[in-house]
Amino acid sequence: MSSFSLTFLTLLSFFCFCVNARLTLDFYKDTCPQFAQIIRDTVTAKQIASPTTAPATIRLFLHDCLIPNGCDASILLSSTAFNKAERDADINLSLPGDAFDLVVRAKTALELACPNTVSCADILSAATRDLLTMLGGPFYPVFLGRRDGRFSSAASVPNHLPTPSMPMSQITEIFTRRGFSVEEFVALSGAHTVGFSHCSEFVTNLSNSSSSYNPRFSEALSKACADYRTNPTLSVFNDIMTPNKFDNVYFQNLPKGLGVLKSDHGLYSDPVTRPFVEGFAKDQARFFRVFASAMQKLSLLNVQTGRKGEIRRRCDQIN
Fold it and tell me: Is it the case that residue 6 has pLDDT exceeding 70?
């Protein structure tokens, strides 16, 4: 190999190292040493006041990171007269307000302590991890140094986020296209061990003769959702056994017909995903290990660093 080629490869390796090194575990050590404590304090206060905050924030994080532009907090941007933003795409209209409010609270506190320093994307990533651990979920290191995206479009959302009515093969493909294994996808689906689903998302499946719902469970869901047409806010817990604890009981429920959404049942009925459901149901440590790794992987998708993106002064609008 020529000296030129060696020099070029050395420079290329150095460049790649520098780019990746911009995301570090202690990114705010000097510029905002209060970062971790402010996130913890904000998360704790909000979760105690509104217990739905944790599942809401996990969902918001997923909906931000899974679309092509990745974890850039573009989901937080509001629409303008000239642009319909991601948060106003049909699938995102049901994102709970508690998650948005949490980020606003954390951003306000951080702007007072460290003006123009911490990105909204980092706030969402760190807050999601802290909320997971509060509910008993696994800890994983969150790399920091993301910049916020400057653009958000509702048109970029369709076919990049899973819906309960999608065939399992299509949902699986959404995740594998983004670099996740089937096992990682099933583990991420385990986030349904907390949170709730609106009746409108599943009630029409209950009367299907080929339904895999437990009959008594189906009857109970029908009663709980009887007035969903007049009250669209009606919802039920995704995991009826331990709804406020992050554990593997969600996977234990699926073979018993105790899944709420069509996609929940699909995880167990599909021969590709079923072995992982069974494995996680038997071994919570394995579920936690794969889930933590997949969440960290998700948090690093297409992040913007350095001169790319910006540090928004307000999370709902570009500077």
Answer: no
